[in-house]
Design brief:
Blueprint: H1 3-20, H2 23-30, H3 37-57, H4 66-83, H5 86-91, H6 97-108, H7 124-139, H8 141-148, H9 155-163, H10 176-200, H11 205-216, H12 233-246, H13 250-258, H14 263-266, H15 268-287, H16 293-308, H17 323-332, H18 348-366, E1 375-376, E2 379-380, H19 383-413, H20 420-431, H21 452-466, H22 470-475
Antiparallel strand pairs: 1-2
């Protein structure tokens, strides 16, 4: 393990975050929020200086190995979750360090869990930074570095492998840096189209940009305390469409746009993903039936999409929909969008592989002498991929159970009055990067109700969930650091 390699990459990422911290200054100037500018400027200068110093001082002596790639990703994401809190602290928007780190981690991991009681009381610069963290984190700061920093060389392959949200990273071109650029082109293009459509509706340009940032990243931060419930039907339908697109593979989008107009129809993963959303929305509509028909349909579909894609917006308080729908909503937190999307959680592609492997195991038991291959649709899945997915699922559930136990113990020690529903859904939501949960952290609540230590645990779960466990696990493994 080469510390020079690791700190070289981490420095590049921190420097990129420092440069991004300068953008809220422009917003503050536009809205004449002069008192905010020194805080943003200090944050940007300090962060960029730290990053560029690490970048130059620890000049990379060679290519990254696989374990260095995973370790670098784990270190970089931990660093940006911490350092991203500086604008909140320096401007005084969130003066408590624990809360500022929580909000930063929630932003960069696109979780959307918040400790801000009313975002409408924050300055425009702080709101923009809050949304920008999600937009950057959506496609991935490491992938962004791979796209714009060719000096990373073949180390880009290891970084992309470590951060790719799914069982197999999509590779549209022979070079990962070119693949990363093309995925970012799609990401930026969809963000611009959504912002324009929202601006044509009832949103101001500022609101439209912020919500486009947090929709395409499946982050869910809003500029209003009522989330999307503060807007009308047109805005909500636009958000539904773009949340659905954000939960799809961006490589699939690129293939559809440039190569194959039937790509969407050929994708089994897409059919399963849309089928889950459709089925869940029908069950929700049945469960809440009784009000205006169009509102019921829109609220149920919106909630289904926002939970499956792990966006976390809200138009209705689904925490009050009753125990049956609450159980289903927690279950949907473990689904996620397609591999290669900005969604969190397990991902529908992995669930397909797991179901295929289960069928294969059953057939092997029935026919012990038979030779069977796990398939997804008609495509065979290599045994190594199946084993990797099974390992990920086991680790994911272990992280979930450990998280629930830790939060319960901390709550007991802190004499917290939080109920089990709040704690369990909070862990599921944080690990799956969903955002809101049930009980006291529903769409109308926030995570301020958790004790300070619990917020640090939940912040860690957000990072673990965003990186899909392995980079953090490798980072904490003693044998990785042995010479």
């Amino acid at each position: 393990m080469s510390w020079r390699n690791l700190l070289h990459v981490v420095g590049a990422v921190i420097a990129a975050i420092g440069a991004a911290m300068a953008t809220p200054i422009v917003v503050s100037v536009i809205y004449r929020e002069w008192s905010e500018i020194p805080g943003f400027a200090a944050s940007a200068i300090l962060t960029f200086t730290i990053g560029i110093t690490l970048w130059f001082f620890f000049d990379s002596p060679g290519e990254l190995s696989t374990k260095e790639g995973f370790a670098a990703v784990g270190m970089a994401w931990t660093a940006i979750a911490l350092i991203g809190s500086l604008p909140y602290i320096f401007t005084g928007e969130i003066s408590n360090i624990t809360n500022a780190v929580f909000e930063s981690a929630s932003g960069f991991t696109t979780t959307g869990a918040s400790i801000v009681p009313d975002p409408g009381l924050m300055s425009h610069g702080a709101l923009f930074w809050r949304s920008l963290t999600q937009w950057i984190g959506g496609m991935g700061i490491i992938v962004l570095s791979v796209a714009i920093l060719p000096l990373l060389g073949m180390g880009a392959v290891q970084l992309a492998r470590a951060e790719s949200p799914g069982p197999i990273p999509d590779r549209l071109t022979p070079r990962f840096s070119e693949t990363a650029k093309r995925l970012w082109y799609v990401y930026i293009g969809l963000t611009g189209i959504e912002a324009a459509l929202l601006w044509l509706g009832e949103m101001s340009l500022f609101e439209a940009i912020n919500h486009a940032f947090t929709t395409l990243s499946t982050g869910g931060f809003s500029t209003h305390v009522g989330s999307l419930g503060a807007y009308g039907a047109y805005t909500q339908w636009v958000i539904i469409v773009f949340m659905t697109l954000a939960g799809m593979s961006f490589a699939l989008h690129y293939t559809f746009i440039t190569r194959d107009k039937l790509a969407y129809f050929k994708s089994l993963g897409l059919r399963v993903y849309l089928g889950i959303i459709f089925a869940a929305s029908i069950l929700m509509a049945i469960g809440i039936w009784g009000g205006p028909v169009l509102t019921t349909i829109r609220d149920s579909l919106f909630t289904s999409v926002t939970i499956v894609t792990t966006t976390g917006y809200g138009t209705a308080d689904f925490a009050t929909w009753g125990p049956v729908l609450e159980v289903m909503i927690v279950g949907l937190m473990f689904v996620g969008g397609m591999a290669g999307s900005t969604s969190g959680s397990i991902k529908t592609d992995r669930l397909l592989i797991l179901s295929g492997a289960s069928r294969t195991d059953v057939r092997r038991i029935i026919h012990p002498r038979g030779v069977f291959v796990t398939r997804v649709g008609k495509k065979p899945v290599p045994d190594l991929v199946v084993e990797t997915v099974q390992t990920f699922f086991l680790l994911y559930m272990f992280a979930f159970m450990t998280g629930v136990f830790a939060i319960a113990v901390i709550g007991f020690a802190a004499d917290s009055s939080l109920d089990l529903v709040t704690m369990v859904s909070g862990v599921a939501s944080s690990l799956g990067n969903v955002g809101p949960g049930l009980g006291e952290i529903g769409p109308t609540g926030n995570y301020l109700v958790f004790p300070a230590v619990s917020k640090w645990v939940l912040s860690g779960l957000m990072v673990i969930g965003r990186l899909e466990i392995l980079p953090i696990l490798i980072l904490l493994s003693p044998e990785v650091w042995r010479k």
